[in-house]
Amino acid sequence: xxxxxxxxxxxxxxxxxxxxxxxxxxxxxxxxxxxxxxxxxxxxxxxxxxxxxxxxxxxxxxxxxxxxxxxxxxxxxxxxxxxxxxxxxxxxxxxxxxxxxxxxxxxxxxxxxxxxxxxxxxxxxxxxxxxxxxxxxxxxxxxxxxxxxxxxxxxxxxxxxxxxxxxxxxxxxxxxxxxxxxxxxxxxxxxxxxxxxxxxxxxxxxxxxxxxxxxxxxxxxxxxxxxxxxxxxxxxxxxxxxxxxxxxxxxxxxxxxxxxxxxxxxxxxxxxxxxxxxxxxxxxxxxxxxxxxxxxxxxxxxxxxxxxxxxxxxxxxxxxxxxxxxxxxxxxxxxxxxxxxxxxxxxxxxxxxxxxxxxxxxxxxxxxxxxxxxxxxxxxxxxxxxxxxxxxxxxxxxxxxxxxxxxxxxxxxxxxxxxxxxxxxxxxxxxxxxxxxxxxxxxxxxxxxxxxxxxxxxxxxxxxxxxxxxxxxxxxxxxxxxxxxxxxxxxxxxxxxxxxxxxxxxxxxxxxxxxxxxxxxxxxxxxxxxxxxxxxxxxxxxxxxxxxxxxxxxxxxxxxxxxxxxxxxxxxxxxxxxxxxxxxxxxxxxxxxxxxxxxxxxxxxxxxxxxxxxxxxxxxxxxxxxxxxxxxxxxxxxxxxxxxxxxxxxxxxxxxxxxxxxxxxxxxxxxxxxxxxxxxxxxxxxxxxxxxxxxxxxxxxxxxxxxxxxxxxxxxxxxxxxxxxxxxxxxxxxxxxxxxxxxxxxxxxxxxxxxxxxxxxxxxxxxxxxxxxxxxxxxxxxxxxxxxxxxxxxxxxxxxxxxxxxxxxxx
Length: 811
What we know:
- It is a single chain.
- By secondary structure, this protein is of the alpha+beta class.
- The protein contains 17 helices and 37 strands.
- α1 packs antiparallel against α5.
- The longest helix is centred in the C-terminal third of the chain and has 21 residues, at about 640-660.
- The relative contact order is 0.07.
């Protein structure tokens, strides 16, 4: 789930402020920063023997030959410089993951290239550092109005991005230093270099790229550095009261009051997620005092839809003492609901239809009042307190009984069905028609099946004018409700009691699903029969995906994601992986031979070792699980799904297999692990380091491959690393001296992974007419590992891990 904090991650375009405050009002200072241009009297010509250098983070940027021009000062502070000529940048990331990503995008873990120009903004010592070096080199400023004017189009385009960041920094009690450079690389084109402790990971290298008609921000490297301490959290949202009217044209007119607590950081600005399609009318305090805010300043509606952002900056009149509680009231309007045709509606901006503060680990209480056209039905997060009619509208009231990280709603001309259990109820809602685009596709498929003159021979019970009935998603309501109820009862074994009193399952146009607290958005395809899915163009694997996995994956998110949060984008894989693996186990429970756990794992393994369409390499080599959303890039637009769901499920499966022990309940340790995670990390963030600690608390002796009761080897290889190991074995068989047993000696070869990779690999003896017999395990370490087993029978070949306990390929 994307949250407001992501603003400081996206593109790395954040800023800290000048070193002193200014008496200007907020918008006056913003406008002044936005209007900043170059100083035509501050032009310096650098010659090769006078090379000027900057060291920022792990980057060394040199200006070898060319023209340096400083920005005009504002309140005696210089906040920018530009360069045209020949420069060079050299940087080597510290972290293994980041080196791998750098090599992925640049074919080298080292950024070592020339650039032809630079646009640089800063509030650190950059200006003083450059001027000192220029003076030491004997260079004096020259006046060149033409040189300054050539940069006018670039400054007018880029300044607005930085003006707001620089302004927000002026509101901090201790301004952290900031450095941003856009360098026009000779080999790569423009890219960014950022050092800013307003980002959780202060140092960033990245680039905007376009692929297949979509824009991506390829993050080459992003990480913490020792001498840059990220800023502390500033506020926490405690309670949301949202009163929303959905008007006859399906637009929203809403008021939201957010109660917050100051955490003592001394900040005066807050960043809320809010869809760019929604326009703020006013922002006030609880007593009606108007607050200044920034939302896509100076953009037309057309510009906002193309290059606007989904964030809202709110300025407090003064900093607040620690633990001070206060409220901000928003009035806004706009349209995030799209009519998909046939009385089917698509609710966009499901995370940002209201001003939302915080991230996935920030849990708050919600109080929702919704008004909507009475011909429609609406479902929402929380327990329904009331629903009644008022004139041409219906009014509903929902409250959450427990803190949640996000709230949502869905609406349509729904039919519904309910399943009631002892502790909860499941309500399933679906339209009686499919969305218009899908209906057209289905109509086309029917026309293609029938010859122009009609069927050559009437089928039994049909006439010449036969046409299949339009697909009706509502037909699936009762069965889907029963299946979801069954999945809840199944998951309770692993995750504890269902955490909500009600689960509303609603249809949404599209090819995805989402699991909000007590509310599921499920694709239309999941409501359709197999034959209709086939007519719609879905492959057999896609049909199984929508029917066997999607609804039940989202049910599992009721625990994993909505109760247990994640610390950052690097930890989100945990909730997704556990939710997906539990969905696989639920599918396996039905004992359908085509949908067993083994079959799903084989498919995922195949997906990881093959190159996906539009990807530059096999999914298993693209990047580490810990890269999270960064896995999607111009080189692999859909790598997140392939890695997080496929490899993530395999990681949880391998942990489960390692924790299994003989007995009446072989999964006791695995179940205990999941129960601990749900209870210990309820309504808070779970990090990868936390997961490792909890795994170590229940690990078996055989898991301790490196000694020291540590699972570091596993997490470094499977979460922080890339690659899928390939194994093959060579062996010889000899009878022992007594002739009663066979000595099996050989070597296990390990490929496609680093030499430091280690794994416990089971070897089985294949014997004619019998099931393979376990000989033992080999701790593979390095390219080849010798082994020696004794067996009562002579195997005709060795089989490597036939029980699929390890993610690998074999021969």
